[in-house]
Amino acid sequence: MELTDTTRKDGSPGAVLMLQGTASDVGKSVVTAALCRIFGQDGYRTAPFKSQNMALNSYVTADGKEIGRAQGMQAEACGIEATTDMNPILIKPTGDMHSQIVVHGRPLAHMSATDYRSRFLPEAKDTVLEALDRLRGQYDIVVMEGAAAEINLKDRDIVNMNLAGWADAPVLLVADIDRGGVFAFLVGTLELLEPHERQRVKGFIINKFRGDLSLLQPGLDWLEERTGIPVLGVLPYIPDIRIEAEDSVVLDELTAKGQSSPEADIDIAVIRYPRISNFTDFDPLQEERDVRVRFITKAADLGHPDVIILPGTKDTIGDLQYLRSQGFDLAIAAAVESGDAQLAGICGGYQMLGKMLHDPEAADGGVAREEEGLGYLPVATTFAKEKRTVRVTGRVADHSPLLLSAESRCLLAAGEPIPVEGYEIHMGQSRSLKGEQMAPVFKLGPDGEQPAAEGWGTLDGRIWGTYLHGVFHNDRLRRLWLDWIRESKGLRPVKETFSASGLKEQEFDRVASLVREHLDLERVYQIMGISAKTV
């Protein structure tokens, strides 16, 4: 089927299917992505949708707007460009009780949880339904992702059963058996629903199962008899899913994995502060066979890494203060002074490496303040209300601190540029203070614009920072940088690497294949009221 036409030929709205979870991190986003890929493989134009998302790991659309990374990832699974209609409302926490509210990709305001419920949610229904209606007018199927049942928020719900009712959407309930208590989770969730809401639940999906299905079958029979709702599939536990995660709860697993993983030639420590954002920047590094990535929360765990990275954050000054309170500043200084570790900063981490941070308009963390930076790079950052969200392309700068490997020097001598692409998403603007022995990291710009110097680093490559998210998704650059670290340790370069984008496509297909094998797709199509033969 030809999938390029963006309007439904008969003018009728596309089918909808909603996935809700019994708890956070039950795998709902991954199952949604798998269904997006499956429906596309079966010839349906498919799009994801989540009306309201709370996440610090966000995604920049082609037109420079910000949405939740899960919907961006799911759009990639569909083989389409993401738009803000797929996630019209994004909540980015800046503190325990305050968040930045992003509507159709642009910051609206900082609000407390109470203000958000009382001032914003009463007006949000139209925003949500207009976005969903546009998607249903363009696509055959819209796969809607909800959340877990939240009784305390039910009266003004715009993401779960209220939305399912507005859209007249059937609901599939996803539960995680690996964490235990799967039958209690499913039955308990149903008990929290009103009778008309329970009628919308058309099937259960049990996720992350390991073991003998015959031993589980008596429980499945009991569940179906007790609830009258069919179990549509028991999906296997899939280890090492290489699909970008959105919920920071996954960092608990990554933190434990990094601490327990076997020794590798290159040890990279990523500081995990409270408001860490866009941690998927480091996914490709975790796939390199000679690299160990550790997310650390204690200065005592820093050890003697080859690289220390300060990642992005939604609260740069707040997380810098946290970093100091935990003694990370002293541990970092000792590692840098010893000459053993390279120090890098991305986005908020880059801002921290500078001399000074000013936030007079309370643009970044919701509170007007300023803070002295760590002082490693000659830049000063001022935060403003306008957020920069843009995809950029360009090349590595000629004297970049990233191009110091033997192969890099050969490429420079031959006049061969190293292309790079990624995205920027930040409130602050950093100005150079003209430091000596420094060089820009990249030459970047939006498509069609003249590239400009971006980032800053020492000529010896020991310290550098950039606003570019996705820097390590650039395969050639990633490997050149890692091989320079190897050379500085007296190790031979590896040179061979993998395609980060190719790996992602393989993972979409792998997970979709497993879901297709273990899910009753014929019944899923019937629940949606469509047939694979009537596209």
What do you see in this structure?
By secondary structure, the protein is of the alpha/beta class. It has 2 domains: 251 residues, P-loop containing nucleotide triphosphate hydrolases (Rossmann fold, 3-Layer(aba) Sandwich), CATH 3.40.50; 225 residues, Rossmann fold (3-Layer(aba) Sandwich), CATH 3.40.50.880. 33% of the residues lie in helices and 27% in strands. The protein is built from 16 helices and 27 strands.
Summarize the topology.
Elements: E1 15-21, H1 28-41, E2 46-49, E3 52-54, E4 58-60, E5 66-68, H2 69-78, E6 89-93, E7 98-103, E8 106-112, H3 113-138, E9 141-145, H4 161-167, E10 171-176, H5 182-191, H6 195-198, E11 201-209, H7 213-227, E12 231-236, H8 250-260, E13 266-271, E14 276-277, H9 283-287, E15 291-296, E16 307-310, E17 312-313, H10 316-325, H11 328-338, E18 342-346, H12 348-352, E19 356-359, E20 369-372, E21 379-396, H13 406-413, E22 419-432, E23 438-439, E24 442-445, E25 452-454, E26 456-458, E27 463-466, H14 475-488, H15 500-518, H16 521-528
Parallel strand pairs: 1-9, 1-10, 2-9, 3-6, 10-11, 11-12, 13-15, 13-16, 16-18, 18-27, 19-21
Antiparallel strand pairs: 4-5, 6-7, 7-8, 14-17, 19-20, 21-22, 21-24, 23-26, 24-25, 26-27
